[in-house]
Amino acid sequence: MAGEHGQVVNVLSGSTVVGPVIQGGQITFTTVQQSWPLQIGVVPAVADAFQYRDSALALSVAAGTGTPVVLCQVLAGMGGVGKTQLAAHHANSLLVSGALDLLVWVNASSAQAVRQAYTQAAAQVASVDPSDFEEGPQLFLAWLSTTSKRWLVVLDDVQDSADVNRLWPPHRACGQVVVTTRRRDPLWLSDGRTQIDVGHFTVAESLAYLRRRLSRRLPTEPEEDLAELAEELGHLPLALAQAASYLIDAADSGLTSRHYREMLRERRPLSELAPTSLPDDQTSTLAAVLALRGR
Q1: N or C: which end of the chain has fewer CB within 10 A?
Q2: Which residues pair with 294 in a beta bridge?
């Protein structure tokens, strides 16, 4: 592979690779001691009562076993449908099963964030200066392009396809890329990528999710009440997760799913219906997600 400045990039085979060393106009990554598998970046915990739905199956099938069938999968959908959770489940499953040597999780909400994450990764796998945000990303991509290690790069929450220009991981039989984004962009359908549309839960998925989440604190909730609550919340995974957490928090006070639904119908501010703490490493309340949709 040619580097950003035209150098030919080579990687020595071995249990570990770092560098870089420039000799005769070439970049060579020399071997040092490293512990594998290696995870870089914070992967969200798999959601409580995670639903293995059609989009999760599509992601697993697209990735294949051993050599990936599709090297880059783009999970596209509106806020709150669970794209990050699907990516986290996929990444954790591969790591736990021993199918990965390197997992890099990138909070990719801006080009700067991507460059910083790549530079951090380059510092760990290729002894790059961790403050070199110009060369670091290109050296990390160069390392990915020739290593025999099995790797997965997750670009979570890409908000503008321009933010990943010249920052796409290379196509490699030993590598995978998963992107989560609200955007539907022609770029996602080009150059060996495939888009997986992520939507709301089905009725059955909503009921299964609520039943599992509430099984300890509200085990006797009538099926019809849970179905009506799910319908009221539009089968939106984030809304169901936060409603379930609110009900669990308030279970000792006698609050039920019917009471919660009545409060929704009273048009109470959503801030009053938010749980004490957001579940599943979520960072946005339902009110914030709906406000973003309304822009």
Answers
A1: C
A2: none
